[in-house]
Design brief:
The protein has 96 residues and is mainly beta. 0% of the residues lie in helices and 44% in strands. β2 and β3 form a beta hairpin. This is Lipoprotein.
Length: 96
């Protein structure tokens, strides 16, 4: 599964690899900086941030969490897993 990046402040070099709750692998390459990126209908269980930007992960598809809490911070060149009991990730924002 591959996603295309959205328009914004220019591309951030690198790849965000992810695995959905159903075990499908996907990637977003060179995402636009400072913009919201939806995983579409996919619910993401884990990410490996190989980009040169830090990320904020969200449970909602529009870079917001249903309960209003802030996104989960994932620094560049690190990996993270969603707490599925709380909710899978549906979107992310590059933090530039």
């Amino acid at each position: 599964m591959a996603l295309t990046a959205c328009s914004g402040k220019g591309p951030v070099n690198g790849t965000l690899a992810f695995t959905t709750v159903r075990g499908a692998a996907g990637a977003v390459t060179n995402p636009e900086g400072g913009t919201c990126h939806s995983f579409g209908p996919a619910e993401v269980a884990s990410v490996d941030n190989g980009t040169l930007a830090d990320l904020l992960m969200f449970q909602g598809p529009d870079c917001a969490n249903p309960d209003g809490s802030p996104g989960i911070y994932v620094p560049t060149e690190t990996a993270a897993q969603a707490v599925l009991k709380v909710g899978a990730w549906r979107s992310f924002r590059t933090y530039v």
